[in-house]
# Entry
Amino acid sequence: MIHAHVSSWAIALILFFVTYFLLKAGKAKGHKITSMILRLFYVLIILTGGMVFINIVTAGAFQFMYLVKVLVGIWVIGGMEMVLAKTKKGESAKGMWIMFIISLVLVLYLGYDVL
Ligand code: HEM
# Structure
């Protein structure tokens, strides 16, 4: 399940950048399709991550940091959505980019180093 989780967020990250550049290039139809697929991958990330989390809990291996990891994971998804929403409105997405990058670095650190 962890492989499905890693594949889901890796594909989501690629789709996020593709959607961002399509938006920037003014390709309305293209970005609509990729952002819909991106949202499907959000669901996959949450489902696979949720299943990994349930496995950890039922195995009796729960640690507080796993919960933090889950919350930061959801925050990354929120970050991607907010960057895209601001960009779509034509507003500056600088603050959202900073938030997204911080949450992404944090989630990778929590996923690979701390846990
Ligand atoms: C884009 C968002 C996310 C990213 C980039 C991400 C990244 C990661 C990474 C790098 C790992 C470690 C993989 C490994 O050990 O091989 C991981 C594990 C995990 N993720 Fe996510 N994740 C995200 C979202 C989520 C969400 C939304 C949830 C929960 C609903 C979640 C739950 C988990 C759990 C429970 C683990 C296992 C922790 C461990 O054993 O290290 N993740 N994730």
Q: What stands out?
A: The pocket of protoporphyrin IX containing FE is lined by residues 2, 5-6, 9, 12, 45-46, 49-50, 52-53, 56, 66, 69-70, 73-74, 76-77, 107-108, 111-112, 115 (CB under 6 Å).
